[in-house]
Amino acid sequence: MKKDTVSPRTKRLALLGILGAQALVLSFLENLIPAIPGLPPGAKPGLSNIVTMFTAAAIGPVDALCIAVLKALFAGLTRGLTAGLMSLAGGLLSTLVMVLLLHLKKNPFGILGVSVAAAVAHNAGQLLVACLLSGTAALVWSYGPLLLLFGILAGILTGIFLKLLFPVLLKQSRFFGISINLQQ
Amino acid sequence: MSKFIKKADLILLLILLLLCGGLLLWSHRTASEENLTAVIMQNGEEIEEISLDKVTEPYSISLDCKPAVTIRVELGCIYYASADCPDKLCVRAGKLQKAGDTAACLPSKTLIVVKGPAEEGQPDVLTY
Looking at chain A, which terminus has fewer C-beta neighbours within 10 angstroms, N or C? Predict the structure, then answer.
């Protein structure tokens, strides 16, 4: 039988690379969707959160944060510094919230709760940066309610996707030789 | 985490929806279409204050910032006419016509806020 010569760390790195690429592709694709009138321009469903949530739940909090930073770097390189900062703020806050909710004792939240909380936290982080950059809190009142509602809806959507894609993502991880232990 | 919905999820959802409704009611209560004043801010400081109701001829303002933006002022509304930023979210925000409407160009650190009548001297928040 052929001896397995690849170290576990390398396997994990390879898997993270693939997951990171998937997050970037999802974020790139959804940016191609034109802005819907009536919604704040730039509001997107946040499909790449599917990957981040899976990573936070199945692989580890630090790995999920790495993916968030990667997304922010990508946004910064392709869409400018401001977009990068917004992505970083939203991504970090969103990932922190995800990790927090997933590590609570007795696991009170299911996929839906984590997903909605992550989406709303993402929007909140971005709104915070927008207020800091423009120097006023007026943005909270004008964009706040709509962002919150849209965040809830986006969270539900990504939650559904994650539920559907979880088995496939697990299979992908096993392909890389990473065995997943999920705390129930 | 493999379960989709648990009780805590629904409670969270409810709280967020209530928060959203509350914010909507609050921002609409104070919104009006008369006596509008537009404030243009750059780098967190007010640089222009315009009474939108008193505009006789539409005009444009080109702000001294990088990326450059042009703001158009008309009777009763104000908006970003053009901008050199990559996303152009400010221009896509459209015309600002009601109190509370805002548009921001974050790369140029500029912002337009439309305020309603008699905002000075009013309490910002009331609790009962």
Answer: N
List the domain boundaries for chain A: 9-175
| Domain contains B84 | yes
CATH architecture of residue range(s) A9-175: Orthogonal Bundle (1.10)
Q: Is residue A93 classed exposed, middle or buried when 0-12, 13-18 and 19+ CB atoms within 10 A define those classes?
A: buried
Q: Per residue in A23-79, pLDDT tens?
A: 999 988 888 877 666 666 667 888 999 999 999 999 999 999 999 999 999 999 988
Partner-chain contact B44 A81, CB within 8 Å: no
Look up the CATH number of the domain holding residue B71. 2.60.320.10
The whole-number average pLDDT for the span A15-22 is 94
A144 touches B: beta carbon within 8 Å: yes
| Yes or no, beta carbons of A108 and B6 under 8 Å apart | yes
Q: Which stretches of chain A are DSSP H helices?
A: 8-31, 49-54, 61-79, 81-102, 111-134, 138-175
Give the pairing type, strands B45-51 and B59-62.
unpaired
Task: Give the domain extent around B53.
Answer: 37-115
Whole-model pTM: value is 0.77
Testing the interface with B: which of A99, A142, A182 to mutate, by most B Cβ within 10 A? A142
Task: State the smallest CA–CA distance between residue B110 and chain A in angstroms.
Answer: 6
| pLDDT for res A3 | 66
Domain total in chain B: 1
For residues A55 and A114, give the distance between their C-alpha atoms in angstroms, rounded to a whole number. Answer: 13
